[in-house]
Write a structure and sequence with these properties.
Blueprint: H1 2-24, H2 30-51, H3 61-88, H4 92-122, H5 131-150, H6 153-171, H7 178-200
Helix pairs in contact: 2-3, 2-7, 4-5, 5-6, 6-7
Length: 205
């Protein structure tokens, strides 16, 4: 019985320390969010220019735009991850939020591949219309983890905004304007909060 109580106290102390740790330490990874938001928002604007007829291009230009954006993102994110990896091990909050964002990234990539296969097999691009909403909803999930670990109100608002953005983007899904709306959402829900996180990290970290 005594051992059980000691184990329980140790677990409670660990959870209390983790919570206090998350609220006091700055979240890292803001630069990764800025890179992702800026690169894919630019790709979304380029998609809109082609889809709306502002730029005359082959239909193959659309997948090329997104594949090029993915290549640029990977080229930028790899050195950023190498720089942040030693620092992320410092706090439980950064480990948890880092894993959440990593899960979001892999989930988006997997769903994109699955949707592409569905479009190929059905000869219809309708399934792609859901992808922007899915991306923003997953952003909301990652921001909720970050908010729970830090207790910061503005991060909770960002999470709620991501979920709301997923619904708003769906309203425009059948029009070329969806890509401009999606680009604006990425700036507001990734670039802007990413910059805010970067500003909170001391220069000595």
């Amino acid at each position: 019985m005594t051992d059980d109580l000691q184990s329980l106290h140790a677990d409670i102390a660990f959870l209390r320390g983790l919570a206090q740790d998350g609220r006091s330490a700055p979240l890292l990874g803001g630069s990764m969010l800025v890179a992702a938001g800026a690169i894919f928002a630019s790709a979304s604007v380029a998609h809109w220019l082609v889809a709306s007829g502002q730029i005359v291009a082959s239909p193959w230009a659309l997948p090329v735009i997104w594949l090029a954006a993915l290549a640029v993102f990977l080229g930028v994110i790899i050195p950023i991850r190498r720089r942040l990896s030693p620092m992320k091990t410092q706090t439980g909050a950064n480990r948890a939020t880092g894993m959440a964002w990593q899960g979001v990234g892999w989930t988006i990539f997997t769903l994109w591949a699955a949707i592409a296969i569905v479009c190929w097999r059905t000869h219809s691009a309708i399934a792609l219309l859901l992808l922007p909403s899915i991306v923003l909803a997953l952003y909301g999930l990652a921001w909720m983890v970050a908010a729970a670990m830090t207790g910061k109100r503005w991060i909770w608002l960002t999470a709620i905004g991501s979920y709301a953005g997923a619904v708003v983007v769906a309203v425009f899904a059948v029009t070329p304007w969806v890509f401009l709306v999606f680009a604006a959402a990425l700036v507001l829900l990734a670039v802007v909060p990413g910059v805010a996180l970067m500003r909170q990290v001391p220069k000595t970290v």
